[in-house]
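Sequence and fold
=================
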Amino acid sequence: MAVLSGKVALVTGGGRGIGRCIALRYAREGAEVAVTGRTADEVEATAASARTLGARAVAIVGDQSEEADARRMVEQAEHQLGPLDVLVNNAAVGIRYVPDPEMRWAHTLRIEDWDAVMAINLRGVFLVTRFALPGMRERGRGSIVMISSGLGRRGGRQYGPYSTSKFGVEGLMQVIAVENEESGVRCNSLATGGLTNSSEKFLGALPPERLAEILPANICEDSALYLASDAAAGVNGQALTAALWNAEHGITVEALRERLSRE
């Protein structure tokens, strides 16, 4: 039997990069998948790919930083697929879209840029989680996976709002884990362990030699699958790092790149 057979998962920011890889891995492992994001053609493409793998899958377009959209994402996913078993909070925005590096320092950053990053990366994560939790608690089961970052565990220069938002996600993870430890709902975070190519849009053009150093977009799919599965039933309030988890389980970056090239 597939690892996630019979489970329903919602993956935010599932139109590309890390989120797309996790959504498709869940689909391969038997889950029904709701894919959300702000770019219609991307989320629809991921959902279509999931359906070719035999999964029921839906695309839900919306902005998770907006309360009405966040609520609708959860409600629509459950209406079309069934009660949620898994929530992957992956959607996030970086700071490299600010073109001038000198405008990325805390003392030069425009307030509107701070607000924009925090709205999606922290408020949005809270909102989707907020609307998914009551049903999970009522059913006495659920796994919430927060996609975090090393910059959410140690601050980075010129990454002020991004780093702060990810620290906030780590804190939110711990709060959700503690508040629900007796409810059957668990919450954990997952950092990649390095820069991934899903961030390339915000990095700008990089030379080939630098791109070769960047972790593949599927770096999190195995550890995210584990956290969603019954094998992780006793895991709660933990901050995992995908690259380290992969190494402990014999999954190499080269193998991940090869896997990605076949998809």
User: Anything to note?
Assistant: Strands lie at 8-12, 32-37, 57-61, 86-89, 142-147, 185-191, 239-241. Residues 111-139 form the longest helix (29 residues).
